[in-house]
Amino acid sequence: NLITKMANTLASSKSELCHPFTVAVEGNVGSGKTTFLNHFNKYENVAVFAEPIELWRDCDGYNLLDLMYKDPKKYSFTFQSYVQLTMLRQHQKKIQQPVKLMERSIYSARYCFVEKMSRDGLMAPPAVAVIDQWFQYVTKSQDTNLDLIVYLRTSPEVAYERILKRNRSEERTVPFEYIKALHEIHEDWLMKKTLHKCNAPVIVLNANLDKSVIEEEYQKYEPHILNLNK
Ligand code: DGT
């Protein structure tokens, strides 16, 4: 019995090493993912991965994020191909800590952003099919599994206000309708669960709260996010 117990303990710590408890923080543009990540940066047992937006701004000298917003019909496919690659790399990064916290995932890239571009006719059906074939192949053959999704739920109005306030140069042309539609897509994916499969459990935080009080909201869910309830 003791031997079985020891073997089980060894097996579970081995699987923790191979696959840490992996959490993706998701939510609309401007929902406060960066603030959320900063809060968890202070914990030694958590490896935090911010979104690779700097890579999107400089792919061999090309600012793909900017090109995508300026000429979406021409550059959506290019941009999403690179987002998918850089997200895969985030999923694959090996860490020593038991918890991995990622800003977004390969799933929101496919289920929210490609979805939106496809609906708007910014990505032609053959381009969506190619992205999707890569997505299916990669998510089946690589460990991109999530153990938990933290949904930072905002109203589209609050998210939009924050985008205007931060004034990121590439985002200057983003209309409110885009943020509203992205909100609905996140809702369908993570709340109603009517859009695509969502295998990981989802916890929902009220991300409309102001920065000054949101720490309390984070703390409420911390044991779950840090996997301390095992
Ligand atoms: P935060 O801290 O919640 O305000 O997070 P943001 O807004 O810095 O991060 P995110 O991921 O919501 O947006 C990054 C920018 O990239 C934003 O302008 C939307 C754009 N974008 C377009 N397609 C994609 C995609 O497939 N994935 C991600 N993450 N961003 C995309």
Architecture overview:
The chain is α/β, with parallel strands linked by helices. The chain has a single domain, classed as P-loop containing nucleotide triphosphate hydrolases (Rossmann fold), CATH 3.40.50.300. It is 57% helix and 11% strand. Strands 2-3-1-4-5 form a five-stranded parallel β-sheet, with helices on one face. The structure holds 2'-deoxyguanosine-5'-triphosphate. 2'-deoxyguanosine-5'-triphosphate (DGT) binds next to helix 2, helix 5 and helix 6.
Properties at a glance:
230 residues, alpha/beta, Rossmann fold, 5-stranded parallel beta sheet, 57% helix, globular, binds 2'-deoxyguanosine-5'-triphosphate
Structural topology:
Layout: H1 2-18, E1 21-26, H2 33-40, E2 46-49, H3 53-57, H4 64-70, H5 72-92, E3 99-103, H6 106-119, H7 125-141, E4 148-153, H8 156-166, H9 176-190, E5 202-206, H10 211-225
Parallel strand pairs: 1-3, 1-4, 2-3, 4-5
Helix pairs in contact: 4-5, 5-6, 5-7, 6-7, 6-9, 8-9
Bound molecules: 2'-deoxyguanosine-5'-triphosphate.
